[in-house]
C-alpha cells in the first residue's frame, strides 16, 4: 500500500477506511463569506471537533478538507482538530476556488506569473502550508502539508485567471504527484477541466472532477470517465438542487458501465446549516449514516416475487415477510462497497414530505437501493393512507460498523 499525507503526517492508505473526500471543517474568512453571508463562516474549532467525532461514531475514518488558499483556510485549526480526534485522519489541500472568490484585478492569483504560483503550490505540499494562508506579506510554514490541489471554474465558462490557475495546478501536480480535486459550478465545464488538465500533462487517474452530480447526464459522465478521470459525487442532502436519488442513478449507471473505481464520495458540508453542531439536522456524518424515526406502520399485505435459490451468488432469505417484510442477503457482486451483509425492510413515515429520510438518505444505502433490481427480492411499494412506504436498510461493514438508513421510493 502507498502512503497518504494527513495534517499530522503520512499514514498507510490501507488505514483510510470510509473517506469523506470533499469536506469543509474550517473557514475563518474570505470573499466567499463576504459574498454569501455568515452561514459560510466555520470558525469554531470546538464545534468542528464535535462534528468530526460524530463522523467517527458513524464509522468514518478520513476527512479531506477542501478549503483552498486565501479563502479562510486555517491549517493550525485543522491540526488542532486532528489532534483532538486522532481516530479520524484529516487531510487538506492547496490550490484555488473559482475565480469569483478572488479579486481578478489586484489579487496575486491575477497578477503573479504561472511559475510563481507553481512555486507556492509546491511549497504547500513539500515544505508545509503557510499559517497566514498566503495573505502576505510574510510566509511562515507549518508542519502540516497539503495532500491535493484544488482548482475551480465558473458556471458555463473558464475565465482567463482560472485558465492560468489550471495550468499552474497541472505543473505543480507533475512536480509533486498529488491528485487534483476540482470545483465545478453547477456541474458545468467538467469535461473541459479534465481535457485541459490532461493536455497540460496530468495523468487522468490523478484528476477528480468535483460536484459533477449537479449535472446528472449519464452520457456526459461516461464520456469523462472514458478519458480516465474520476468523479466526486458530493453535496449530500441538497434537495434544492437535486434529490439524492439522482446521485444514486449516476452511481448505478457508472457501476453498470464498469467505472465504479472512478467514483469518490463526499458530503461537502460547507455551511453552518450543513453541520449538526451548528444546529443542522444533518452533518458531516451524512455520508455514513442517517437515522430514521418512523411511526408504527399500519397493517398491510406484502407480496414478494420468487427469490434466488441457495445456489445463487446472492444468498437471500426472508424473515417473517407477512409481519416485517424483511429481506437479508449477502452480496458478492459489488465488493467495491466494502460490505458483507445487508437487510432491507419496509417502514412507514406519517409525514414523508418533511421527514429527512423522505428527502434523502446516505449514499451507501442509495447504492444498495439502486442495485436492488439486480438482486431482485422485489417488494411491492404502496402509498398508504397515512404516508409513503420506504425501504429501510442497514449494512454491516467488514470492519464491524453498522449503519441504519432509509431510502424513499415513489410508487409506480
Quick rundown:
It contains 12 helices and 16 strands. The protein has helices at residues 31-36, 45-57, 75-84, 108-111, 114-126, 160-176, 190-199, 218-226, 244-256, 356-359, 363-370, 372-375; strands at residues 3-6, 9-12, 18-23, 60-65, 89-95, 148-152, 180-183, 207-210, 230-233, 263-265, 315-319, 326-330, 339-349, 383-384, 387-397, 402-408.
Structural class per helix/strand content?
alpha/beta
Helices, by number, come to: 12
**How many beta-strand segments?**
16
Q: How does the overall form come out from the CA principal axes?
A: globular
Mean pLDDT, all residues: 78
What integer value in Å does the Rg equal?
A: 22 Å
Element order: H for helix, E for strand: EEEHHEHEHHEHEHEHEHEEEEHHHEEE
Q: How much beta, percentage-wise?
A: 15-25%
Q: Which residues form runs of ≥5 with pLDDT under 50?
A: 290-412
Considering DSSP H and I runs of 4 or more, what fraction of the residues is helical? 25-40%
Descriptors for this entry?
412 residues, alpha/beta, 6-stranded antiparallel beta sheet, 16 strands, globular
What does this structure look like?
This protein starts with a strand and ends with a strand. The protein is of the alpha/beta class and 412 residues long. The protein contains twelve helices and 16 strands. Helix 5 crosses helix 6, helix 6 crosses helix 7 and helix 9 crosses helix 11. It is globular.
Amino acid at each position: 500500500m502507498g502512503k497518504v499525507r494527513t495534517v499530522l503526517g503520512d499514514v498507510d492508505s490501507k488505514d483510510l477506511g470510509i473517506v469523506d473526500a470533499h469536506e469543509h471543517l474550517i473557514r475563518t474568512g474570505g470573499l466567499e463569506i463576504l459574498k454569501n453571508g455568515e452561514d459560510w463562516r466555520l470558525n469554531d474549532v470546538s464545534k468542528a471537533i464535535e462534528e468530526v467525532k460524530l463522523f467517527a461514531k458513524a464509522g468514518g475514518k478520513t476527512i479531506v478538507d477542501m478549503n483552498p488558499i486565501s479563502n479562510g483556510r486555517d491549517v493550525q485549526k485543522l491540526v488542532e482538530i486532528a489532534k483532538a480526534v486522532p481516530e479520524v485522519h484529516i487531510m487538506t489541500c492547496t490550490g484555488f476556488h473559482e475565480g469569483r472568490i478572488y479579486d481578478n484585478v489586484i489579487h496575486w492569483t491575477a497578477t503573479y506569473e504561472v511559475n510563481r504560483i507553481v512555486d507556492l503550490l509546491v511549497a504547500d505540499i513539500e515544505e508545509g502550508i503557510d499559517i497566514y494562508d498566503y495573505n502576505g506579506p510574510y510566509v511562515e510554514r507549518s508542519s502540516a502539508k497539503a495532500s491535493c490541489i484544488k482548482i475551480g471554474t465558473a458556471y458555463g465558462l473558464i475565465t482567463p485567471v482560472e485558465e492560468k490557475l489550471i495550468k499552474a495546478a497541472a505543473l505543480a501536480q507533475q512536480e509533486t504527484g498529488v491528485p487534483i480535486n476540482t470545483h465545478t459550478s453547477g456541474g458545468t465545464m467538467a469535461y473541459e477541466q479534465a481535457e485541459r488538465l490532461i493536455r497540460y500533462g496530468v495523468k487522468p487517474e490523478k484528476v477528480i472532477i468535483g460536484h459533477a452530480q449537479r449535472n446528472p447526464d449519464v452520457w456526459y459522465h461516461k464520456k469523462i470517465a472514458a478519458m480516465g478521470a474520476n468523479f466526486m459525487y458530493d453535496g449530500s442532502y441538497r434537495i434544492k438542487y437535486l434529490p439524492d436519488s439522482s446521485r444514486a442513478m449516476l452511481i448505478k449507471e457508472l457501476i453498470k458501465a464498469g467505472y465504479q473505481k472512478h467514483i469518490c464520495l463526499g458530503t461537502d458540508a460547507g455551511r453552518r446549516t450543513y453541520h449538526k453542531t451548528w444546529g443542522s439536522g444533518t452533518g458531516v456524518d451524512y455520508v455514513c449514516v442517517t437515522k430514521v424515526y418512523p411511526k408504527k406502520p399500519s397493517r398491510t399485505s406484502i407480496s414478494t416475487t420468487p427469490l434466488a435459490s441457495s445456489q445463487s451468488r446472492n444468498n437471500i432469505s426472508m424473515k417473517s415477510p407477512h409481519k416485517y417484510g424483511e429481506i437479508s442477503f449477502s452480496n458478492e457482486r459489488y465488493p467495491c462497497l466494502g460490505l458483507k451483509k445487508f437487510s432491507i425492510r419496509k417502514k412507514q413515515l406519517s409525514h414523508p414530505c418533511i421527514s429527512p429520510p423522505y428527502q434523502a438518505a446516505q449514499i451507501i444505502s442509495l447504492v444498495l437501493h439502486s442495485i436492488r433490481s439486480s438482486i431482485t427480492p422485489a417488494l411491492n411499494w404502496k402509498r398508504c393512507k397515512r404516508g409513503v412506504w420506504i425501504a429501510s436498510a442497514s449494512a454491516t461493514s467488514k470492519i464491524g460498523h453498522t449503519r441504519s438508513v432509509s431510502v424513499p421510493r415513489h410508487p409506480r
